[in-house]
Specification:
With 250 residues, the chain is an all-alpha fold. It contains eleven helices and no strands.
Length: 250
């Protein structure tokens, strides 16, 4: 019995090690991504192409941290933690961009933070660690559903490209969050391909195709939004959409 308890304790310590590492990577990624996002918004407001590109590069360069983190710790744990970027953007909104931060904005962010805490408290440690890669049928259903949703939201953006109404703003934020979730799934596809016992160079190469397709599209959608709407609005809505998508697919 004592030997069994020691093995259990060792397993818990081992799992916590990877959980903590994953959380640190996600927090670092959130900070760098927030810096890149704010740089893009500042650059578009000041008409600086150089700073805009620099902000995009900073966001892209930090993206692999998500891929690593989500392959070493449960998605349902890391997705809520990544929402700290909302706090970073809220602090920068008025100081850096001169955006008005209202009580409604603070309340919206507080609700998101409360949701983060609930997700963390309700997560059963280790539930997702041994989860197998989904079956072909399940993965195909996910791809079709994600494609349909993103297609509909993209249609709204195209239809409202000359205006800046509520529908465009909401579609912009939800699409940004949804695409962020799909890139997380795409990064896990690469991890599954690398870990497969029958992995070949071709299977690994093909596993990179989804992230190579989605990442540029995601960056374009985000960059478009940063030039049109305040991060104090985009950040919590994108975060909520991404969180719901990540928890649902986790």
């Amino acid at each position: 019995a004592r030997s069994s308890s020691l093995r259990s304790a060792s397993w818990i310590v081992w799992m916590l090690h990877w959980h903590v590492l994953g959380i640190l990577l996600v927090v670092l990624r959130a900070g760098l991504a927030s810096a890149g996002e704010n740089l893009q918004r500042y650059a578009q407001n000041s008409k600086s192409s150089f700073l805009n590109v620099l902000g995009i590069l900073l966001t892209v360069a930090s993206a692999p941290m998500d891929g690593i983190a989500y392959n070493i710790a449960p998605q349902s744990v890391l997705a809520p933690v990544g929402m700290v970027g909302i706090g970073f953007n809220l602090l920068a909104a008025s100081r850096l961009h001169g955006d008005a931060v209202s009580a409604k904005d603070i309340m919206a962010n507080a609700i998101i933070v409360a949701g983060v805490v609930l997700c963390i408290l309700s997560n059963q440690a280790g539930d997702s660690d041994e989860a197998p890669f989904p079956t072909t049928e399940l993965f195909t259903s996910y791809v079709l559903a994600a494609t349909l949703l993103c297609g509909l939201l993209s249609a709204v953006l195209v239809a409202s490209r000359e205006s800046r109404g509520a529908a465009d703003a909401l579609a912009q934020a939800v699409l940004g969050g949804g695409l962020g979730s799909t890139t997380v799934v795409a990064s896990k596809v690469i991890g599954a391909a690398l870990a497969a016992s029958d992995a070949t160079w071709l299977s690994v190469l093909l596993s990179v195709v989804p992230i190579a397709t989605l990442a540029p599209l995601h960056m374009y959608v985000l960059n478009r939004g940063f030039g049109r709407y305040p991060l104090v609005f985009l950040s919590p809505v994108m975060g909520a959409a991404g969180l719901l998508s990540n928890i649902a697919t986790g």
